Amino acid sequence: EAQVTQNPRYLITVTGKKLTVTCSQNMNHEYMSWYRQDPGLGLRQIYYSMNVEVTDKGDVPEGYKVSRKEKRNFPLILESPSPNQTSLYFCASSPAWGVGYGYTFGSGTRLTVV
Amino acid sequence: KQEVTQIPAALSVPEGENLVLNCSFTDSAIYNLQWFRQDPGKGLTSLLLIQSSQREQTSGRLNASLDKSSGRSTLYIAASQPGDSATYLCAVPNFGNEKLTFGTGTRLTIIP
Fold this sequence. Notes:
The complex is a heterodimer of chains A (about 110) and B (about 110). With about 110 residues, chain A is mainly beta.
């Protein structure tokens, strides 16, 4: 089944403890992206990757890192999580950026930082 | 900067009724427009993708229209069912801006 898989689905952590949220897609998609969703603010892009050679910041990149060593994986790294990073996170992928392509989203990761 | 608005923010209708959800965007330089549904605390499920060159796209009881010149899209749901209760989001990717801009969402409740 074609899908974007995020892990974990739920995570509670303490301030300052480094964590990684994994994202993997099995559709050979070039483009991948991370979003966070907060009440009243909607979905905002954190980082995106056009392909394994190009990664760039979205609208709210502060406090996050990403890497794209392989086409299928795009992990989101929080080096020193803070309570304001408590949110619902989504990974998305698309065959490529641009004309004709829709986006497939993962099931989400609910992160709570205490 | 692209802004996407969805009206109404919330809608409750009796089961069986037909309904229309609206999505407005300020920048018509879009590749396409995608409608999603989101159940509470869950992921986004793609419903329909309508290309910038298309006027309509249909899937089952759902029909999406796109009028780029006026910056509007509608999602028509026929013969609504309780299982249609969810939040519906529209999203557009813009030329020269490598992200999806999402609408504010419409929370739909179908009353049995």
